[in-house]
Amino acid sequence: EVQLVQSGGGSVQAGGSLRLSCATSGFTFDEYAIGWFRQAPGKEREAVSCQARDTSSIFYNPSVKGRFTVTRDNAENSVYLQMNSLKPEDTALYYCAAHYSGGGFYCGAQGYEYTHWGQGTQVTVSA
Fold first, then answer.
1. 92: which of 15, 40, 65, 116 fits an S-S bond (Cβ 3.0–4.6 Å)?
2. Rounded Cα distance, 19 and 28, in Å
3. Burial, 42: exposed, middle or buried (Cβ in 10 Å; 0-12, 13-18, 19+)?
4. Contact by Cβ (8 Å): 93, 36
5. pLDDT of the residue at 115
């Protein structure tokens, strides 16, 4: 059974940091790209970041570039999203997701490209 189990998140003041974790199981991790998405109340879901096999294939939404860092631990089958310099507009429900990449260097920036999703974790940033 494919599982993506998220942890982390919470509430911080603007300028603070949080780290999200996404532990995966049930599939060959090296063959999947992992993405992070978020959805704020009343807004559409948007891609935050994604990473395929290694650091040569990382996408960041321009709104988070330079503040968020995604890392992938292939030994632990996990992906982490380090979020620094958080802003109130980062407040949202965050999801990790996975899609098959065949071990290649492509990771999708659209939600429909992903076949497996984590349960979501809330991030709240106060001014």
1. 40
2. 24
3. exposed
4. no
5. 97
